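Why do we care about 3D structure at all? Because function follows from shape, and shape follows, mostly, from sequence. That is the central idea of this module. The next example makes it concrete: a single protein chain, its amino acid sequence, and then its structure expressed as tokens.
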Amino acid sequence: MRALVKSRPEPGLWLEDIEVPPYGPNDVLIRVSKTSLCGTDLHIVAWDEWAQATIPTPMAIGHEFVGTIAAVGDLVEGLVIAQRVSAEGHITCGHCRNCRAGRRRFCRNTVGIGVGRAGAFAEFVTVPATNVFPVPDSIPDDIASILDPLGNATHTALTFDLVGEDVLITGAGPIGIMATAIARHVGARFITVTDLSDYRLAISASMGADRTVNVSVSSIADTMTDLGMTEGFDVGLEMSGSFLALHDMITAMNHGGSVALLGIPPSEAAPIDWTDIIFKGLTLRGIYGRRMFETWYKMTSMLQTGLDVSPVITHHFSAADFEQALDVMRSGECGKVVLDWATE
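And the structure:
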């Protein structure tokens, strides 16, 4: 089969012919239809310090995908051949304290598809049956291919009650953009999104943001005045990983506000000024992955009741044109980039 493989420990990615992955009695073999690129994939291609410490080689990468079931293990129940599916990309151990308590997202032994084991940028991928998620017929393949990052956006956005609240989203990457649509869908009052990219801020506006702020030329404070806000934001969703963005968010939060932190700051990030957090009585919560599988149920239900995240998908390429797709990703002038494996 064809696959995008991290063949050797150096910068680059290669389209190669490799063996179809084996599957065990509790596994499902999935024929991949579409995949979408993620920032994690760029780190792997660049072979940065994180990738060098994390990624085994050689290995097919990729974790955002949709496909159809090609085969099931002898012990698998409830899944059938040709069923359209995606999958939770975090494979958990099942025996640690958090797994046994139903908090699989906190499993300390998690292995990621396309990160610690063979991934989905391939014609076939093997996934444990417990990780497979059937895709409703009403959700098209393009959207199904981005359910993984939509799950990140859903988990982050729904961490705190948004109904009637003023929401600040720092970072208009694809997940921040999708969180904007979710906040609008569930009934937030004012939604403000900040970034440095006018391209991505424009997509945020189309997804329901009341105001978009390019912080290189404007300020959150001016936007609050423009909206008639007199107290501060009730909920913050930090998606950028920028310490400056987090600082601006904390400054703009109302007393008693809540902040969900998904963006990963660089290791050399400046220390946080805890005084504002303490005196305002803010709640900060770190977010990782998705709730398995409550987040999946909630995001698919929202998609079935009018949530539209399609504007976040801005580019399509065949899998063979992956280099061009990666260049688009590196440019930043894009939302989600989808690779089609079925047309080859």
